[in-house]
Amino acid sequence: MKKYYLWIWLLLVLxxxxxxxxxxxxxxxxxxxxxxxxxxxxxxxxxxxxxxxEGVIPKRLKSYSIFPSHGFNAGIGYRFFKRxxxxxxGYAGYSYAQTRNTNSATFKNGIGYDFGMKLRDHFFYLEAxxxxxxRFFINGCLDFxxxxxxxxxxxxxxxxxxxxxxxxxxNGMYTGTTNAFAPGISLGGRVWHFxxxxxxxYTVPIVKSSLYMTDYSVxxxxxxxxxxxFEEFLVDVTGENQENGIKSDGFNGLLLQxxxxxxxxxxxK
Length: 269
Description:
This protein has helices at residues 2-17, 40-52, 230-235; strands at residues 22-35, 69-82, 88-106, 112-132, 136-156, 162-163, 172-191, 194-202, 204-205, 254-263. With 269 residues, it is mostly beta strands.
């Protein structure tokens, strides 16, 4: 494993000290991010929630897709781009991203529920590949991701007021973390000092965890974990079932970025 990382770093460093015609420099970027999940556990919650309130819930919760959460990312890095076709290209950098999704239900009396999902990511990029016709590139990615996921479960009253208080046990702020590899591919092209860069990654937890999405501040007898089966959550008033929670590892999957990147002029040969 150590030899593998050494080769990656050599690929990134060697172009700096070589005499090849390379354009390189620090970059800043901003763009779109879509974050995927494994939706099976969340969709079991949706199904059991809708089933429990059948007949009194005209606006039901919607099922989650594999790609439910959308937002932005922004960061800095250092890019190498050889002008010759087939030459070395590489990128190392950091990005912060935040994506969101809200799922809502409304009862006949006008009271509703909001389940707001927020994924906050710290990305570390390590990418290398080849240029195409001196203007485009394709890179393989071995990126790393540190993700904090939050589910905000709130009651929505008729006047629009939202509460995460104790009037309903499902209310609360449930959090979980995941550390993941993010292998994939990045494609891009250059116009002047600007790059248009797209990435398609798949996040894989570094260590498989059984940790649940948990509300650490709540005071109640029922489980503090966000439930996979809502009806089981209601029946289990003493919180004896410790396996009904939604695991934080499930908030991983496909990830798409589309960024505009600016290379600060640093050195040209």
